[in-house]
Amino acid sequence: MASSRKITLRSSDGESFEVEEAVAVESQTIKHMIEDDCADNAIPLPNVTSKILAKVIEYCKKHVDASKAEDRVNDEDLKAWDAAFIKVDQVDQATLFDLILAANYLNIKSLLDLTCQTVADMIKGNLFPVRNEWLNFTFSIANRELVLVCLTEWVAHRRLFCS
Amino acid sequence: MDCFDFLPDPIIIDIFNAVSDVKTLTCCRAVSRRFNALVPHADALLLRVDRVLPESDPDSLLLSFFRNLLNSVHHFLSPHPAPVPPNYPTRVLRGFARIRDLEIELPSGDLRLEKGTVVKYRAVFGERLRSCVILGFRHWHGAGEAQDGFVEELKERVAWIVSALVGASARHHYVASQVAREHRGLARLAVRDRDGEGEVVMDELGLREAAAAAAGSHGEGPGTLAVPTLRMSMRHERTVEIAGGGGGARLEGPMLVVVRPDEDDDAAEEDDAELALEAFGSGAHGEVVRALLKSGSYLMEMNSF
């Protein structure tokens, strides 16, 4: 059994978080840093604020615990937890997008997949107001038929979509 | 929408792949210049077919249905602006640079079955059929014991098997292989329907096989369907009780058939179970499949029909 070494992570705003190594290495980025022996002191994460880092750690901890034999959580329960975890952020879109960036920077594939899928579901569910650059008014994607008719004409004639 | 400005391009493309739906993605192109540039790079797509164009003069019901379907899908996929009404689906798939993973969802199943009968299949194709798992049963009407004779039951089962095989072959011949021919970059192609009746899958190996064969035959149009000699193992029971969601149910005459072309001899019992569970194990019918896998199997052979 690997020893549960503690790793310290420092957010961009200077806050320190102590986590078990098993949780920290859910992030491939941190894993490589540890392997390259850069982790003696705190690992600085200049791209991640403390608010977001706290959430990331919460996610990683849950997923590490879920796969341990003692606390074995079945897949459905874990998925439900994931849904609840991310739902809070649907209200606050900025946090959701910050999580995407953090998951990308820290290279945590499952969190990146979860957050990207959440955004995709919001796009499918018309939850983003759309601002069209040229027409300069806001309308929801519920007006998709109008958009689509205009769009196909533009694409066909390639007038406005020049690189 | 400013949130998207901070995301790098590869992540936006990942989000588009998670969206998958071709119509939604086409709408996304109207959002911004950046989205318009990135949507064509989405490579995992789901194309929902709304309806099939009506046909004037049906000879064989099933085959004419598929000819119509081919027309509809060709409208979606043809790179050449054929003389067809300019519905937007024609242009929609053209907007994607290189499709790697495509799922086509047809509006409904094609098998014409008696009420209360359920037949589902999952067929894997290369240039021809590589394997097919068929699950069939009748819902219990609750009106006493249905004591059909053995021969009657067998006839009904053979009818189920034949319908499923014809359905799968037609879907492959008229839809999947035509699409595969037009989009060489595909690594996976699946044609399924909204009723969940059948799925025709071509994986990477199958697509390569089909491409090689097409290169040899210079891409003729759809001619007659050829179904090779098939070997199948069938498992069936009189009735099966399943727990299932909602208080349990009783299924009459459930049958599980695993079909393979009569070429290799090394198909062992385990492979049947693997295929069956891959096809139906995780869905609503997993329980029936597991129950049927426990019973012994019969081997049958079917020549081309």
Automatic annotation (TrEMBL), chain A:
**Pfam family of this protein, just one?**
Skp1_POZ
Per UniProt, residues of the SKP1 component dimerisation domain are: 109-125
Q: Which domain of life is it from?
A: Eukaryota
What is the scientific name of the source organism?
Rhodamnia argentea
Encoded by which gene? LOC115736438
Q: Which family does it belong to?
A: Belongs to the SKP1 family.
To which pathway does this protein belong? Protein modification; protein ubiquitination
Ranges for domain SKP1 component POZ come to 6-64
Q: Which residue ranges traverse the bilayer?
A: none
Can you name this protein?
A: SKP1-like protein 1A isoform X1
Q: Which UniProt keywords apply?
A: Ubl conjugation pathway
From TrEMBL, chain B:
- The highest taxon in the source lineage is Eukaryota
Please state every residue range assigned to the domain named F-box. Answer: 5-39
Q: Which InterPro entries match?
A: AUF1-like, F-box-like_dom_sf, F-box_dom
Record's protein name: F-box protein AUF1-like
